[in-house]
Design goal:
This protein is 76% helix and 0% strand. By secondary structure, it is mainly alpha-helical.
């Protein structure tokens, strides 16, 4: 049995001052003193500088390999799946959205640092194989590099972003959904830069050979990488993210178990990546077989698992917020309302119609803070309370109070409307469906 969280703090006689004139400050929560210069600031500056330098270098490498015209064409074509993939991960993460700084870091790491190391390491490994193994022709060296070296290097580098956020942004890493989202965003950035390189190179080759139209190498590359398999890189890295997401709420005192789980996820990502790269050497029939027999079933399984994990998180919101109703911090119907995305959306609409956009933003902030509070208590229950448990809990509760005048009534009205719907217009359990 894990130790239970500390007792709930006593509720104050009334909420902190809150007026519509200070809604902007309220949306940000209580003011805090400026943080002193500390190691976290130094790390952030160092990482930003590293990413910026990596971006400049990889930009130069890609432009040198593709030419200016090829680079611009590759950039224009590679951007197509990026908004769709990011929107899908943000939709999955809407229960408690990941801080935008974490998502921006993950994308930048994948697009700049991870891609730079992968391009350099893969090129070095291929040249080494061709030069040092007598039986390896350039074609064989390229095949070994693609199916063995590239999956290891690329998945390890993409996993580095997950490790960094898991280590230094542990408070924001609440479970499987966070692992999936961070991994997916990192891999989306990686695939974007890689697609620029592949599409730009294909365009340059078409230009030199006079090819154009649907029979061109550019069109074929676009079809395979952008139309058929835009999800490939995210799918590989999500297997690593799943492992880290599971470790975030399990095995609090078993470091070896967490490390073994993370290694298992990374190994699965490398193997799937290697199988996918090897499929390109099997001809059209072999490629389609791997695509239909391996990639599609794994994609379906991971998608189902992601939706299931989000559904479980919604149920945990209701369970872990229940003690706050008993302590008087929340109204009894609120945990029910907050465990339903449909009711949350209805509450936002009610607040917007009644009081305008500021009220809708207050509902959004309130639901995010309440979810963070429930996850904070869930993590303490599963892994034991951290040293700052009470301080963080009090901070979240006080910030909730700032939004309560608008968010509380809207949520209660949304619950009432949902319960008042005529029988047959909603299925039993709809309030808990993700």
């Amino acid at each position: 049995m894990y130790p239970s969280p500390p007792p709930l703090p006593e509720r104050s006689a009334g909420p902190p001052p809150y007026t519509s004139a200070t809604s902007a400050d309220a949306h940000r929560g209580p003011r805090r003193r400026p943080a002193p210069w500390h190691s976290g600031t130094v790390r952030a500056i160092a990482l930003a500088s590293l990413l910026a330098l990596s971006g400049v270098i990889i930009l130069g490498i890609v432009r040198r390999q593709t030419g200016t015209e090829g680079f611009l064409v590759g950039l224009g074509l590679a951007v197509f799946p990026v908004p769709l993939l990011i929107a899908a991960f943000c939709w999955l993460d809407r229960i408690e959205p990941e801080p935008w700084r974490n998502l921006a870091f993950a994308f930048a790491w994948g697009a700049c640092a991870a891609t730079l190391v992968a391009v350099l390491a893969n090129g070095f490994a291929t040249d080494w194989l061709a030069s040092n193994i007598a039986s390896a022709s350039p074609t064989e060296a390229q095949a070994w590099g693609s199916t063995v070296v590239a999956p290891i290097v690329e998945e390890v580098m993409k996993a580095a972003a997950i490790v960094l956020l898991y280590r230094f942004r542990r408070r924001d890493f609440d479970g499987i959904t966070d692992g999936i989202v961070i991994a997916g965003i990192t891999a989306t950035g990686f695939a974007f830069t890689e697609n620029v390189l592949y599409l730009g190179s294909a365009f340059g080759e078409d230009q030199s050979m006079g090819h154009s139209g649907l029979d061109s190498l550019t069109a074929g590359t676009f079809f395979v990488r952008i139309v058929v398999s835009p999800f490939a890189h995210p799918l590989f890295t999500i297997l690593t993210g799943l492992a880290f997401g599971t470790a975030a709420t399990r095995y609090p005192r078993r470091r070896r178990a967490r490390a073994a789980l993370a290694l298992l996820g990374l190994t699965a990502a490398i193997l799937l990546h290697g199988v996918w790269n090897a499929a390109s050497t099997l001809g059209d029939a072999g490629f389609l077989t791997v695509y239909g027999a391996v990639m599609v079933p794994v994609l379906v399984a991971v998608t189902w698992l992601a939706l299931w994990a989000r559904h479980q998180e919604l149920l945990s919101v209701r369970a872990y917020l229940a003690p706050y109703t008993a302590a008087g911090w929340l109204a009894p119907p609120e945990p029910l309302a907050l465990s339903s995305l449909k009711t949350r959306a209805l509450a936002r609409d009610i607040a917007r119609r009644t009081h305008g956009p500021a009220a809708a933003r207050a509902v959004t902030a309130y639901t995010a803070l309440a979810t963070a509070l429930s996850f904070h208590r869930r993590r303490a229950h599963l892994t034991g309370p951290p040293p700052d448990f009470t301080t963080r809990e009090r901070d979240l509760l006080e910030r909730l109070w700032h939004h309560r005048p608008w968010a509380g009534p809207a949520l209660l009205q949304a619950v009432a409307q949902q319960l008042a719907r005529p029988p047959g217009t909603t299925r039993q359990g709809d309030n808990y469906r993700p």
